[in-house]
Write a structure and sequence with these properties.
Length: 313
Amino acid sequence: MEVFELEYPIEKSLDVQDMALAIGYFDGVHLGHQKVIGEAKKAAEEKHLKSAVMTFHPHPSVVLNKEIQEVHYLTPKRAKLEQFENLGIDYVFIVKFNESLAQLEPDKFAEEFLIKLGVKHLVAGFDFTYGHKGKGNMDTMKEHSKGEFTLSMIEKVSHNNEKISSTAIRNKIAEGRMNDARQLLGRPYRLKGRVKKGSQRGHTIGFPTANIQLSDDYYLPKVGVYAVQLALNGSTYYGMANLGYKPTFKEGDAKPSLEVYIFDFSGNIYGKEAEVDFFTYIREEQKFSGIEELKSQLRHDEEMIRQFFAISS
């Protein structure tokens, strides 16, 4: 998979072949997005073209809404690229969303970013818009294509009568409904980061944890305890994660931290990259009266999670 980072105006021609392109923001690369991308792959095979995806970064709200300084993503740029690669895409174009792009008229966008790149077939969702103030849509695209490429539009994709959308997934994650989010994503929700040295307090109470320093601006689940799977050093482990502020120890962190107690594991993993997949919410984070009460609850949590994953202790 080849990745191209573009910014308007595109100052040099790219060494790419004619392509079938899926276009959209694609945060989450959920089942609805996968249908759009799958249609582009199918068209590429039928028309003997390269398969391609065009996405945008940063989120348009960072540029268009001056009050928003950062956005937390379901799939930050690196995670999004991993998903595209998993889907077998040939080319990925990451277009920098800035003021110049926001002001570009729809016909000019089609000319600069689609026709000039060699797009021969375009696939997008029914609600895709483009150009200044989102004035372009899949109806206007027929005119703006100037006969240079054909179009496919993907209608709304639903699950249990609910539209699959990044917003719906965020809402479920914010409520700790990780199984519902998994149904819309087509995979568990994942956070990635490196294991860093923490307070070592877990070792003293018999529950040593891997303190995960997140690698990107992820959209975080509801604070609490979760059943998780953790990928580390090419192996997968079960565990329980605490996402929160550790109120029993009065840590007082400004942002929630992610700590994972990995079942049936020992070893030095500081500095290693870990992927944490969230499966189900166990309980709220709470403040305990003392260490023994905390240990008793952790043993109960571990038993619940082992039962959830059907693994023995």
